[in-house]
Write a structure and sequence with these properties.
The complex is a heterodimer. Chain A is α+β, with helices and mostly antiparallel strands. Chain A folds into two domains: 208 residues, outer membrane lipoprotein receptor (LolB), chain A (Clam), CATH 2.50.20; 47 residues, no CATH class. Chain A is built from six helices and twelve strands. Chain A has a twelve-stranded mixed β-sheet with strand order 7-8-9-10-11-1-2-3-4-5-6-12. The longest helix of chain A has 17 residues. Chain B is mainly beta. Chain B has three domains: 101 residues, Immunoglobulin-like (Sandwich); 144 residues, Beta Complex (Ferric Hydroxamate Uptake Protein, Chain A, domain 1), CATH 2.170.130.10; 616 residues, Maltoporin, Chain A. In chain B, a hairpin with a 3-residue loop joins strand 17 and strand 18. Classes of the chains: A alpha+beta, B mainly beta. Chains A and B meet through strand 1, strand 2, strand 7, strand 8 and strand 11 of A and helix 1, strand 2, strand 3 and strand 8 of B. Chain A: It holds the Pfam family Porph_ging. Chain A: This is GLPGLI family protein. Chain B: This is Carboxypeptidase-like regulatory domain-containing protein. Chain B: Keywords: Carboxypeptidase, Hydrolase, Protease. Chain B: GO terms for molecular function: carboxypeptidase activity.
């Protein structure tokens, strides 16, 4: 089953519309601390960066797999229960957005589907906003020689290690602008730590549909607010779009609310602390 | 705040700029071979071709770039790279200039790295280790790599532990081919063929129980690189002196529907291949009956050295084993495991034993020379249907062995010959059936078995003259034992989920009938006195209602289990010899409670408490004397023993896959009360008469354990440490005096495996232990044992290594307790073929005996064991 899904995943990358071709894939492990006050709330996830000529696509592995599964389901005649099962196979993820970087136009698009209403949102911003300082310090990551650089972004100070031998001025998340691919980057408190786990050339350069037209444009502030609203009170967010949950009694409802709000309280440490 | 910071950085940069040397501005434009403007090209400036980058720029939409360089040197090194083009490199002068750079296309690929990366990842209850990441140059088979994984420990006999608990199942691609006899795969499956090793925590092997009955144990799964794998190893070796041979052929094949491992092994080099078919299946409490062989009789052995058998085992062994799994249909597997072992071993040694009794000390010196003939056939046929709704497992197992021992003991005054024949046969069938019926799960178990053995010990000249021949010497004494056992245990029950609770009551009955006939012959004539015969029939019956409740909280952080087995047990011993019978009827309630809590992603705590009753077995229920060994005469002239045992334990586990750190600690306490005491009467020659006496007594034991392991990614090093401390107290009768025996033991062991340099791999393991025992307040001398082993592998070339290994053993009890060993190895791998030539020189220092000493609660033993001499062996190894 898994094999089939992975095969589908790759097959699907060859679909119509405005296609972008990616010939390399960098895989990173992201370790992040969900609750800034709790050392033991460290989680990890695999994230992937697809690299093409002048553009790239970044998302969590879970999101990438889910996207292509969804595209497959859309294109085929599959019952909703079956499709639910298929989608369940995708790795779980806490990050539901994807980031497209376009180096020609020096712009970045973050696109996200807020689960509740299936509304699609995106925001566009400038690409190279980090003023990197490079330092004469080198080390080795998975056989690549990397050089150290520091810079600050959205309220955190970062140390990045980039590989001049990989000619991509790119990196995970919104990070870019160094003279080589960023293989490792973490903020000084080590709340967000990306480290390369694999770099490979894709045997058949994969093409991905880039159809963001159906996404509604917001400002980053609005989208962040939206996501936050949803996380803080998913029940209300569902209610807003007309979905009601049947609870057996008030007690159950209160319990669920409490659990949700505790979960929200724990998720107090987003990667961007300030716009 | 942010503005302030920006201004601050700005000021700092101005400051730095103004104090540094002059600044050069280099600008230019990048073109492709068609003179098209290239955007996104990376222009890097460094001092020279090897030093790090000083400044860089990225070309804009018009291909233009501008770089400010602050450096005092005369020349600079310019590098321009762009995806799809060859890198442009040039040395330029350090002055302001405008450059035009033309790049020519290149299809050269970038260097790739495999997903070596995620060397340890976690997905729910599964930890997955990437073998490529941990595999060192000197690792050949999967066991070599498993040894290095943090959290995993392989004990000297080959058993695999995860977080200090033995693993439950050893799967290869999700299939349980070997049913616990996993050494044959672990020691022969090439590490090259394996992609990942998974630890499945809380693994429930029975699918239909998966969401109903949680499991406390972990299983291990080997993931192969290919869907169809043909692997295995073959070795052939020859050496001297005397003539040595060693051969081993282990082909194996794994496909989706079929798995097979076949092996033939033979050597006289001391390699103990019987370990390859050792069964590590876990038996669960409540499975009372089995077909294990009982050694009623024995010859006097020399205690074996505690290190690799290659130093001391004088053997001549042949082993054949075949393990075949065939997947008949989806979820239905048919398995056959069959093995035959034949070995001839020789043992040579001297044992000095000093017996301490509260009144006296007795010394015995024995020069021992034993010949051991082993012949063992084992077979297991399994049909398993592990489907989502139903489960069926039927196992038919048979064991047969035809072992014989010959022993010669030289004592200062006499020479004693012993001859033991020990043929054994056992067969059993275990059936387990689970079926979904509506919303319930119906369970049915039926286990039936039969064993038979006829043992025969001949001792020349006869011993225990005072008892058997009015104190006069005599020629020979022979002990005959014939025993038979038949049992059946059947139960039926159901499992039902009630919300987050699962209830599984079962009702059953069991019956076991055992017969024991023993006779002693003096000079070939049967001793007719009732005291030296046994004609026993022992019947154990039980009717039981066993229930267990399980609870699993919704977020799976709490796991609770409460078992409440209620059992009516009845024991009946019919002694035809003494025309006597003994009965015992008991209603026993043996509750058991277990709780586990996931405290956080990394921490987990567990606790358990339980009550158990143990009743006498036939091994402690014969009233006529039995000559167990040439100087041991046993009888149990007492009622059926009853023991009540309380157990408590608590533990804490930490596992952090991100940091590759695993820790565990536990404490357990056991207290038991028994109605029987065993009394040893030790005579002048060290002859021991063991008898059981009805007298209430107790035993208590505290045990502390802690362990940890960590893998240091950058150093490619695994560090493992384990410590344990044990404190116990029991009462014992020695020469009719009641004494309280205290024992304390402490053990610390650790190991480090490190790839220090690309040409040097080192591994160290050490073990330190102390043991103290004593009567009442008087302690005997404390024994300290130390073992240190260091292996160094030097790689002058990638395909060759020289290894030096040193071993040190020390025993503080004996003056001659220091033992050193040095071994040398050279291995050459033929390029382009998977063949290794290995030349090993073992026991370079030619140490000929190993001195070991230990003291027990009531004796002190110092033994010397004759070791294998210095030997050289050349071996060719192939990976199939």
């Amino acid at each position: 089953m898994r094999k089939l899904l992975i095969a589908l995943f790759f097959l699907n990358l060859g679909n119509l519309q405005a296609q972008k071709s990616y010939s390399y894939k960098a895989t990173y492990n992201l370790e992040y601390q969900e609750d800034s006050t709790d050392q033991s709330s460290i989680k990890s996830e695999t994230v992937v960066l697809y690299l093409g000529k002048g553009h790239s696509r970044y998302s969590s592995l879970g999101k990438a797999v889910k996207d292509s599964l969804e595209a497959y389901i859309e294109a085929s005649n599959i019952s909703s229960s079956e499709s639910f099962e298929i989608l369940n196979q995708a790795p779980e993820t806490e990050f539901h957005y994807k980031i497209f970087k376009n180096f020609q136009d020096n712009e970045l698009i973050l696109a996200e589907i807020i689960t509740v209403d299936k509304w699609r949102y995106k925001y566009i911003q400038d690409l190279n906003t980090i003023d990197w300082k490079i330092q004469p310090e080198n080390k080795d990551i998975l056989g690549f020689s990397v050089q150290r650089a520091t810079g600050s972004f959205a309220g955190r100070n970062y140390v990045a290690w980039f590989a001049p031998q990989l000619p991509f001025s790119d990196g995970p998340y919104k990070f870019s602008g160094l003279s080589g691919l960023i293989l490792e980057i973490s903020d000084l408190e080590n709340h967000y730590h990306f480290s390369l786990t694999g770099f490979e050339e894709l045997a058949n350069p994969v093409d991905k549909i880039l159809d963001l037209n159906s996404y509604k444009v917001l400002s980053q502030e609005e989208l962040d607010q939206f996501r936050d609203d949803h996380n803080r009170d998913p029940l209300a967010a569902y209610k807003n779009v007309g979905v009601r949950f049947g609870f057996r009694n008030k007690e159950d409802e209160a319990k669920t609310r409490k659990a949700l709000s505790e979960k929200y309280k724990k998720r107090n440490n987003p990667i961007e602390l300030q716009p | 705040m942010d503005h302030f910071r920006k201004i601050f950085f700005f000021l700092i940069s101005i400051f730095i700029t103004s104090i540094s040397c002059s600044q050069t501005e280099i600008s230019g434009q990048v073109f492709g071979d068609q003179d098209e403007k290239l955007s996104g090209a990376m222009v890097m400036v460094s001092k020279d071709s090897v030093s790090s980058i000083l400044a860089y720029g990225i070309s804009d939409a018009n291909g233009k770039f501008k770089i400010a360089v602050k450096n005092g040197s005369n020349s600079l090194f310019l590098k321009v790279s762009h995806m799809g083009f060859g890198t442009f490199k040039k040395t330029i002068q350090n002055k302001a200039q405008t450059l035009e750079v033309k790049l020519s296309p290149s299809s050269e690929s970038l260097k790739e790295v495999i997903v070596k990366s995620e060397i340890l990842r976690q997905h729910g209850d599964t930890l997955s280790f990437s073998i490529a990441a941990y595999k060192g140059k000197n690792d050949r088979v999967i066991a070599d790599v498993l040894r290095k994984l943090p959290g995993i420990d392989i004990r000297p006999n080959g058993q695999i532990f995860y977080q200090d608990e033995p693993i439950q199942k050893y799967y290869i691609e999700g299939l349980d081919l070997l049913e616990g006899r996993y050494n044959v795969a672990n020691n022969n499956l090439s590490a090259e063929a394996v992609s990942r090793v998974e630890i499945l925590e809380n693994h429930q092997p029975v699918k239909v129980l998966d969401s109903l009955v949680f499991s406390e144990r972990a299983s291990l799964n080997i993931k192969l690189k290919k869907d169809v794998t043909f692997s295995g190893t073959a070795t052939a070796g020859i050496g001297a002196a005397p003539l040595l041979w060693q051969t081993k052929v282990t082909p194996m094949i794994f496909t989706k529907k079929q798995q097979a491992i076949v092996t033939y092994q033979s050597n006289n080099t001391g390699s103990d291949v019987s370990g390859e078919i050792r069964n590590f299946s876990i038996k669960y409490a409540g499975e009372n009956f089995d077909i294990d062989n009982n050694d009623w009789l024995s010859i006097e052995n020399v205690s074996a050295p505690p290190f690799s058998t290659e130093r001391w085992l004088d053997n001549n062994v042949h082993l054949g084993s075949a393990n075949i799994l065939h997947r008949i249909k989806e979820d239905i597997d048919l398995k056959l495991n069959i093995s035959y072992l034949n070995d001839y071993q020789q043992q040579d040694g001297v044992t000095q034993t000093r017996y301490f009794t509260p009144t006296d000390t007795i010394d015995v010196v024995e020069n021992t020379n034993n010949d051991i003939f082993l012949s063992k056939l084992e077979g297991l046929l399994t049909l398993e249907n592990n489907a989502n709704k139903n489960y069926l497992k039927n196992q038919l197992e048979f064991n047969g062995s035809w072992n014989a021992n010959r022993g010669l003991i030289d004592r200062t005054d006499t020479q004693i010959k012993q001859q033991l024949e020990n043929p054994f046969f056992g067969i059993k069938n275990d059936l387990r059936l689970l079926r979904t019926l509506g919303k319930q799960l119906i369970t049915f178990n039926s286990n039936t078995g039969f064993t038979e053995n006829n043992q025969d010990l001949l001792v020349q000249p006869g011993q225990f003259e005072a008892i058997f021949n009015e104190g006069d010497p005599y020629g020979k004494i022979q002990q005959l034992v014939s025993s038979r056992k038949i049992y059946t245990d059947n139960s039926a029950g159901f499992t039902k989920a009630l919300g987050k609770f699962t209830m599984s009551p079962k009702f059953g009955f069991s019956i076991q009938n055992q017969q024991l006939d023993t006779d002693i012959l003096i000079e070939g004539e049967e001793v007719l006195e009732a005291d030296f015969k046994n004609r026993n029939e022992f019947v154990q019956t039980s009717v039981y209602l066993k229930n267990s409740f399980r609870f699993k909280s919704k977020d799976e952080t709490w796991n609770l289990r409460l078992s409440t087995p209620l059992e009516f047990k009845s024991f009946h011993l019919e002694d035809d010899n003494f025309e006597d019978s003994r009965n015992l009827d008991r209603l026993v309630f043996e509750p058991n409670f277990f709780v586990k809590k996931k405290i956080s992603a990394f921490w987990e705590a567990n606790a358990s408490a339980g009550l158990r009753y143990n009743f006498g077995e036939l091994q402690q229920l014969y009233y006529g004397f039995l000559l167990y060994g040439y100087r041991n005469l046993n009888r149990y002239n007492a009622p059926i023993s009853e023991e009540i045992q309380q157990n408590y334990s608590g533990g804490l586990n930490y596992r952090n896959p991100l940091k590759q750190l695993f820790l565990n600690a536990s404490y357990s306490y056991a207290y038991s009360e028994n109605n029987l005491l065993y009394s040893s009467n030790i005579g002048e020659n060290g002859t021991t008469i063991l008898e059981a006496v009805a007298r209430n007594n107790s035993f208590d034991n505290h045990s502390f354990r802690a362990g940890g392991s960590k893998y240091f990614r950058k150093l490619k090093t695994t560090l493992k440490l384990n410590a344990s401390y044990n404190l116990s107290k029991r009462q014992q009768l020695l020469n009719n005096t009641l004494a309280e025996v205290n024992t304390q033991s402490f053990n610390l062991r650790g190991s480090v495996e490190a790839e220090i340099l690309s040409w040097l791999i080192a591994s160290y393991s050490g073990n330190f232990s102390t043991y103290t025992s004593g009567f009442e307040a008087n302690n005997f001398q404390q024994i300290e044992n130390q073992q240190h082993m260091l292996d160094l592998y030097f790689y002058p070339k990638d395909n060759q290594y020289i290894s030096v290994s040193g071993e040190y053993y020390d025993n503080s009890l004996s003056e001659k307790g220091d033992n050193y060993f040095v071994n040398l190895d050279y291995q050459f791998t033929f390029p382009k073929s998977k063949m290794d030539l290995n030349i090993s020189w073992r026991n370079v220092l030619n140490i000929d005996e190993f001195i070991n000493a230990y003291n027990n609660q009531y004796y002190y033993v110092e033994s010397s064991y004759r070791l294998r001499p210095s030997q050289v062996l050349a071996t060719l190894k192939f990976t199939l």
